[in-house]
């Protein structure tokens, strides 16, 4: 049950608007209520109500045996979480940001991701690792990295990247119910954003499938893929492109591993042009995989070279102007889409 | 009337026994009943326990003829298996890593005697004998080592990745030290589930310096988890002697606020006593550290001759003075529980059993090529998966 949402009625159907924070909180609450094996652990998740208030109210409701404040020892508590998952519990391990997951990355990869395979199915690991990922605002190089590409490279992991409140609810519930290790990459700057949701989304049984992308906006001229915060920028870019006569199809990936290659390729076969957008480092990034997949599967359908928009190939600087140029902006996406459409300048009124 | 009997010719003479009259009568009964004789016997451990922040158990260990004979049989089986694995490795039937446990058998066997299969054990990569102790079979061991279908991990794990979840054995881990937080996690889950069982997380003197050990121990003590950390101190972390790796090699004291016990790891009865004590402690008062003073005859792995960083005299000295199987053999003989011939016959039978298991394992086929793509996930959603040439080999994850 959601504690705060505004109700609006559109076209006779019941819709509310909730923030991503509320969506995540309600998803955690409902899954913990439904399954006593689910528990939450991480720094400040309990008494502090969550570093970003995602776990607000959960300690009060479920008690200190199920909402556990840990010391600042990622390697230790992540290993403990994975061990609990080996035994059959369903831990949700929060990293205050995914930058700190690097302290625990051996447990994520070697203890969690590979165990089902090495044990030929004896030891499955139903664990969720969640927390904010990617750039925030002005937090500098050590606190701004996007880990989607690194984790999505590993067989045995599933990697999810919600954008909207619907994504946040549906994907987190799916992640907690999933029997495999799931990396759940949130975004700090999205926590406070509000999105309209239907009654279906608000229902406690709501769940989204893992491995399926969502077409946020249909189009016919160019396919733009994005995930997490970049979906918002891609949608803004689509509006600008529409005014210039370019109809962009925006794909919200939702799932980086498994990657929904079918949806992406079907879209490119329709539009014949591709722009991938991500916040993380460009080399060996998510976009690199998508571009290659499209070239391999749909080469004959491409009318233009594939385009990648990514974070700058540098550690994140602090100064506001440098930070801005280190992260993709709407104009970058627009420019790349136009390049793919061979329209480097705005279309003049036709003669 | 209690009889005090001392054997005439054994190094473990410091055994003080109290045999009750029933056992004296039992000794007169034909020997083949000994393996089921549960008459209590009390044996003193070879050396006293060293303690840290706790009182420690008594040196007098309760055992039975049945248990002592089973110790002998189980350790002899483990020893024979490891020696056979050495030969198989040299014959190139076992590939990659092979870390052998011969010399350390008393730890595996003594521990099993103190606990149930509902208690959990997790260890590192020197796991063949631990797996056997948990109820794994020789066939599963040899098949896994040779990468065959009949292996405990169906050939997909290898030497370092043996598991037996249905009897509380959680592996089999290749990353030094990782098994310690994992073990504390198992203990967490046991407490969460109100199981009244404990977890033994085993690690070596090399792993004892890992930061994650202290992180996990801190949490385990804060949260009162039924976790027992067992340092199998064989005095060498690969090629590095303990005094070169640890500023303080008193591993049982390194838990600081956590109590600890140092145990003669070559004495299966001492190991049993310590593990029994630790289990009771962990269920009531939280984590405890056990340091097992043990020794490995082989090098770190089959790639290590094991003689460049220690002397052959040292190795043969331990074999002579402290071998765990010889200790039990002498005890069994001195208690007149079996004759030398009977024990030798037992060993012959074990040898045959091991040879048969190897022969059967050799017949087991390698996994189907399709097994490359199984068990990546518990639930794969039908996603595509690729081989080296994705246009040539691709499959769908079930």
A few lines on this structure:
Chain B: Residues 310-320 have a biased composition (Basic and acidic residues). Chain A is of the alpha/beta class and 351 residues long. Chain A has 13 helices and 15 strands.
Q: Give the helices and strands of chain A as they follow along the chain.
A: EEHEHEHEHHEHEHEEHEEHEEHEHEHH
Uncertain residue ranges of chain B: 1-31
Described by strand count, sense and barrel closure, the largest sheet of chain A is: 7 strands, mixed
Strand order of the largest sheet of chain A: 4-3-5-6-8-7-13
How many helices of chain B?
A: 12
End-to-end separation of chain A in angstroms reads: 59 Å
Classify the helix fraction of chain B into a percent range. 25-40%
Identify the most extensive interface between protein chains: A-B, 48 and 53 residues
Report the sheet-strand fraction of chain B.
5-15%
Please provide the count of β strands of chain B: 12
- Derived from helix and strand composition plus strand pairing, the structural class of chain B reads alpha/beta
Net shape of chain B: globular
Explain what the structure shows:
The complex is a heterodimer of chains A (351) and B (398). Chain A is of the alpha/beta class and 351 residues long. Chain A is built from 13 helices and 15 strands. In chain A, the strands form three sheets. A seven-stranded mixed β-sheet of chain A has the order 4-3-5-6-8-7-13, sandwiched between helices. Chain A has a five-stranded mixed β-sheet with strand order 10-12-11-14-15, sandwiched between helices. In chain A, helix 10 packs across helix 11. Chain A is globular and about 60 Å long. In chain A, 56% of the residues are buried. Residues 1-31 of chain B have low confidence and may be disordered. In chain B, helix 9 links the parallel strand 9 and strand 10. In chain B, the strands form four sheets. A six-stranded mixed β-sheet of chain B has the order 2-9-10-6-5-4, sandwiched between helices. In chain B, strands 1-3 form a two-stranded antiparallel sheet. A two-stranded antiparallel sheet of chain B has the order 7-8. Chain B is globular. Chain B is of the alpha/beta class and 398 residues long. Chains A and B meet through helix 3, helix 4 and helix 5 of A and helix 6 and helix 7 of B.
């Amino acid at each position: 049950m959601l504690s705060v949402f505004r109700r609006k009625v559109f076209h006779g159907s019941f819709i509310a608007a909730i923030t991503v924070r509320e969506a995540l909180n309600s998803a955690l609450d409902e899954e913990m209520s439904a399954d006593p094996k689910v528990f939450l652990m991480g720094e400040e998740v309990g008494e502090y109500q969550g570093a970003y208030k995602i776990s607000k109210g959960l300690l009060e409701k479920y008690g200190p045996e199920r909402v556990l404040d840990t010391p600042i020892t990622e390697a230790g508590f992540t290993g403990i979480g994975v061990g609990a998952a080996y035994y059959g519990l369903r831990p949700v391990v929060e990293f205050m940001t995914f930058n700190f997951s690097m302290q625990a990355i051996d447990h994520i990869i070697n203890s969690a991701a590979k165990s089902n395979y090495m044990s030929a199915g004896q030891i499955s690991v139903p664990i969720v690792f969640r927390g904010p990922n990617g750039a925030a605002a002005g937090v500098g190089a050590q606190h701004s990295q996007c880990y989607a590409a690194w984790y999505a490279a590993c067989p045995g992991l599933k990697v999810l990247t919600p954008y909207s409140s619907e994504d946040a609810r549906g994907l987190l519930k799916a992640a907690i119910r999933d029997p495999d290790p799931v990396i759940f990459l949130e975004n700090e700057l999205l926590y406070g954003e509000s999105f309209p949701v239907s009654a279906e989304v608000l229902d406690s049984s709501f769940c989204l499938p893992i491995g399926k992308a969502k077409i946020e906006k249909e189009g016919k001229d160019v396919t733009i893929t994005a995930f997490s915060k970049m979906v918002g920028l891609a949608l803004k870019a689509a509006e600008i492109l529409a005014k210039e006569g370019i109809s962009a199809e925006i794909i919200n990936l939702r799932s980086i591993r498994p990657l929904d290659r079918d949806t992406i390729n079907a879209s490119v076969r329709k539009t014949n042009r591709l722009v991938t957008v991500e916040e993380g480092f460009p080399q060996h990034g998510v976009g690199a995989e998508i571009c290659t997949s499209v070239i391999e599967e749909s080469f004959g359908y491409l009318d233009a070279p594939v385009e990648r928009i990514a974070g700058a190939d540098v550690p994140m600087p602090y100064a506001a102007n440098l930070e801005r140029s280190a992260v993709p902006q709407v104009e970058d996406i627009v420019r790349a889409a136009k390049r793919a459409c061979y329209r480097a300048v705005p279309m003049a009124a036709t003669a | 009337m209690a009889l005090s009997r001392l054997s005439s010719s054994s190094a473990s003479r410091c055994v003080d026994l109290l045999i009750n009259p029933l056992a004296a009568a039992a000794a007169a009964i034909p020997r083949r009943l000994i393996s089921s004789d549960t008459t209590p016997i009390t044996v003193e451990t070879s050396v006293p326990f060293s303690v840290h922040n706790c009182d420690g158990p008594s040196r007098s260990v309760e055992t039975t003829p049945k248990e002592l004979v089973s110790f002998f049989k189980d350790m002899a089986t483990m020893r024979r298996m490891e020696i056979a694995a050495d030969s198989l490795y040299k014959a190139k039937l076992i590939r990659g890593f092979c870390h052998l446990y011969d010399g350390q058998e008393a730890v595996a066997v003594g521990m099993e005697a103190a606990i149930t299969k509902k208690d959990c054990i997790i260890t590192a990569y020197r796991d063949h004998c631990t797996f056997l102790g948990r109820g794994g079979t020789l066939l599963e061991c040899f098949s896994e080592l040779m990468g065959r279908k009949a292996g405990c991990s169906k050939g997909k794990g290898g030497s370092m990745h043996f598991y037996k979840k249905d009897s509380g054995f959680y592996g089999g881990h290749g990353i030094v030290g990782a098994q310690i937080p994992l073990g504390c996690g198992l203990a967490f889950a046991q407490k969460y589930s109100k199981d009244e069982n404990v977890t033994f997380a085993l690690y070596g003197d090399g792993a004892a310096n890992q930061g994650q050990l202290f992180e996990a121990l801190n949490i385990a003590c804060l949260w009162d988890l039924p976790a027992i950390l067992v340092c199998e101190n064989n005095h060498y972390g690969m090629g590095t002697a303990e005094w070169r790796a640890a500023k303080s090699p008193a591993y049982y004291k390194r838990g600081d606020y956590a109590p600890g016990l140092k145990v003669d790891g070559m004495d299966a009865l001492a190991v049993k006593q310590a593990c029994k004590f630790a289990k009771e402690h962990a269920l009531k008062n939280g984590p405890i550290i056990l340091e097992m003073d043990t020794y490995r005859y082989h090098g770190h792995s089959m790639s290590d001759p094991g003689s460049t960083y220690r002397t052959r005299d040292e190795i043969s000295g331990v074999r002579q003075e402290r071998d765990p199987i010889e200790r039990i053999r002498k005890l069994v003989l001195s208690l007149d529980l079996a004759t030398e011939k009977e024990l030798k016959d037992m060993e012959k039978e074990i040898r045959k059993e091991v040879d048969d298991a190897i022969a059967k394992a050799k017949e087991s086929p390698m996994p189907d090529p399709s097994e490359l793509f199984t068990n990546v996930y518990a639930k794969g959603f039908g996603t595509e998966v690729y081989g080296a040439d994705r246009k040539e080999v691709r499959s769908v994850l079930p």
